Amino acid sequence: MLEIDDRPSEEVSYHVRLLDEACLLAALNTGGMDRFLWQPQRLTYKGHEFLDTIRDGEVWRRTKAGAEKAGVAGL
Fold first, then answer.
1. Is-contact 22 9, C-beta < 8 A?
2. Using CA atoms, how far apart are residues 64 and 56, in angstroms rounded to an integer?
């Protein structure tokens, strides 16, 4: 299972699912019918393209500024 310091596993799993829905990651729900547990499998082509784009410092700065303005925390 993917673990991130100071974040509940349910929150990490939820964001993995969102990245899968956005086609940035390929992921599987390994939790079954009674548990919500999404596991990343691989970064997709679209995910690699996204990372290449945000590696540009100016693009990342504008992305963070826009997210903060929209009220998105944690970027």
1. no
2. 12
- DSSP per position, 2-63: ---TTS-HHHHHHHHHHHHHTTSEEEEE-S-SS---EEEEEE-HHHHHHHHHHTSHHHHHHH
Host H or E run for residue 65? helix 57-70
Give residue 74's pLDDT.
57
Threshold 0.90, pTM exceeds: no
Nearest CA-CA partner of 30 in 20, 38, 40: 38
Model confidence at 72: pLDDT above 70: no
pLDDT of residue 19: 97
